[in-house]
UniProtKB/TrEMBL annotation:
Protein name listed in UniProt: Transcriptional regulator, GntR family
Annotated signal sequence range: none
Kinase as UniProt keyword: no
Keywords from the named record: DNA-binding, Transcription, Transcription regulation
GO molecular function: DNA binding; DNA-binding transcription factor activity
PROSITE patterns: HTH_GNTR (PS50949)
Residue ranges that the Swiss-Prot or TrEMBL entry lists as coiled coil: none
UniProt organism field: Arcobacter nitrofigilis (strain ATCC 33309 / DSM 7299 / CCUG 15893 / LMG 7604 / NCTC 12251 / CI)
Length: 240
């Protein structure tokens, strides 16, 4: 018979609450309450709570306690995926906030990716994407300015990057290549997403091209909260 560790009593109790009684963002019982209920030490109770945090069921607010994470958002990556459309399909509200934008010189690595001359002007942009006002996706863009003249004047009020490409610049954006990685960058999780626990971050590097000219429009690093996102890669278009 499998031995049950003390912290698993706390884990199983809270897990059942999450699945039967608590809603998204509801606060779970305090550590003191759980210590008294199970006659366990604070260290043991915290071990059970931390396991739920690491598995993405809970998140912390400094000085406020622990809360139920919303169920994961299924985000599909295909050659034509757009953030706005994916979130609207889930009957949730997408929004975007510009964090930084500037004109920089392309270094050797970025110039090769964008297929432009080294030191050529490009647009560097950071933004945060929200789902129902919750930070969900942080992105860093390197944009081919030669295809996007004057875009720096448009981006501050943009609600959809792909819509700008299509409607203003008559481009046909298509995801050409994506690389997926898992990172535990504390700066991203704690400073950007304001998450207290060390949450793994899903990093996706994406190259977007214009389907008509085959020229590279942008290269983007996207960082998804692993406690909120479930990534699905759709290869249907590549099946003969």
């Amino acid at each position: 018979m499998k031995k049950t560790f003390d912290y698993e009593l706390v884990y199983n109790y809270i897990f059942k609450l999450i699945n039967t009684k608590l809603n998204d963002h509801d606060k779970i019982p305090s550590e003191n309450t759980l210590c008294e209920k199970f006659s366990l030490s604070r260290l043991t109770v915290r071990q059970g709570i931390n396991k739920l945090k690491n598995e993405g069921y809970l998140y912390s607010k400094r000085g406020s306690g622990n809360f139920v994470n919303p169920k994961k958002i299924i985000y599909t990556i295909s050659s034509h995926t757009t953030f706005t459309n994916e979130i609207l399909k889930l009957k949730k509200t997408p929004s975007i906030k510009l964090l930084e934008m500037k004109i920089i010189k392309a270094d050797e690595e970025i110039s090769k990716i964008l297929d432009i001359r080294e030191a050529e002007d490009i647009v560097y942009m950071k933004n945060m994407r929200f789902v129902d006002d919750t930070p969900f996706l942080y992105a860093e863009y390197y944009m081919n300015k030669s295809l996007l003249s004057g875009i720096e004047k448009i981006l501050p009020t943009a609600t959809s990057i792909s819509k700008i490409y299509k409607d203003i610049y008559n481009l046909k954006p298509k995801r050409d290549k994506s690389e997926i990685d898992i990172t535990s960058t504390n700066y991203i999780s704690k400073q950007i997403f304001n998450i207290q626990n060390d949450l793994p971050i899903i990093k996706i590097s994406t190259k977007t091209i214009d389907k008509n000219s085959n020229k590279t429009i942008d290269y983007c690093y996207s960082y998804f909260r692993s406690d909120m996102a479930k990534i699905i890669v759709d290869y249907k278009e590549n099946i003969a």
